[in-house]
From TrEMBL:
Species of provenance: Streptomyces nodosus
Gene Ontology molecular function: transferase activity
Keywords: Transferase
Entry-linked InterPro entries: AIG2-like_dom, GGCT-like, GGCT-like_sf
Domain of life: Bacteria
Protein name per Swiss-Prot or TrEMBL: Gamma-glutamylcyclotransferase
CDD domains in the cross-refs: GGCT_like (cd06661)
UniProt domain Gamma-glutamylcyclotransferase AIG2-like: residue ranges: 5-133
Annotated transmembrane regions: none
Length: 136
C-alpha cells in the first residue's frame, strides 16, 4: 500500500530529520492528529504509544510517487523498524489520522515497538498535549 506517512517528531518541519529525509521527496504536508495514542519523550526523540484516549499532533506527509519506495525504505531504517522483529524500536502500522479540516485518511505511523511501549507505559514521561514541537 502506498499510504501517506503521519510524522510527529524529528521528521516534522523545522526538526533535524525533516530536511534530511523529506526535502524534495514529498508532494504535500498537512497538519493531522492521531487519536488513541500517547506521546512519550524518549532519549532524543518521541514515541507514540497506542493507548487510551490520547492525541498526538503531527503532519500527514504524501510522498512523490517516484520517491515512495526509497523513502519508505529510508524511514524504516531511520526508525529502526524490521518487519516481524519484536526488538524493533518502532513498528510501522496503518492507522486513521484526522486532517485539520476533519477528514480522515489512512497513513503509515511509526509507533513504539512492543518492548519500548511496555517500558514507556510502566515508567515513561508523557509529553503534555501530545505535541513534540510544543515541548520547548
Amino acid at each position: 500500500m502506498r499510504l501517506p506517512f503521519f510524522v510527529y517528531g524529528t521528521l516534522r518541519p523545522g526538526e533535524h530529520n525533516h530536511d534530511l529525509f523529506l526535502r524534495g521527496r514529498v508532494r504535500s504536508e498537512e497538519p493531522g492528529l492521531l487519536t488513541g495514542a500517547v506521546l512519550y519523550a524518549g532519549p532524543g526523540y518521541p514515541y507514540a504509544v497506542e493507548q487510551g484516549r490520547g492525541t498526538v499532533s503531527g503532519e500527514i506527509v504524501t510522498a512523490l510517487p517516484e520517491a515512495y519506495p526509497e523513502l519508505l525504505a529510508d524511514l524504516d531504517r531511520l526508525e529502526e523498524y524490521v518487519p516481524g522483529d519484536p526488538r524493533s524500536l518502532y513498528e510501522r502500522v496503518d492507522r486513521e489520522v484526522t486532517t485539520a479540516d476533519g477528514r480522515t485518511v489512512r497513513a503509515w505511523v511509526y509507533v513504539a515497538g512492543p518492548v519500548v511501549a511496555a517500558r514507556l507505559r510502566a515508567d515513561g514521561r508523557p509529553i503534555e498535549g501530545g505535541d513534540w514541537l510544543a515541548r520547548r
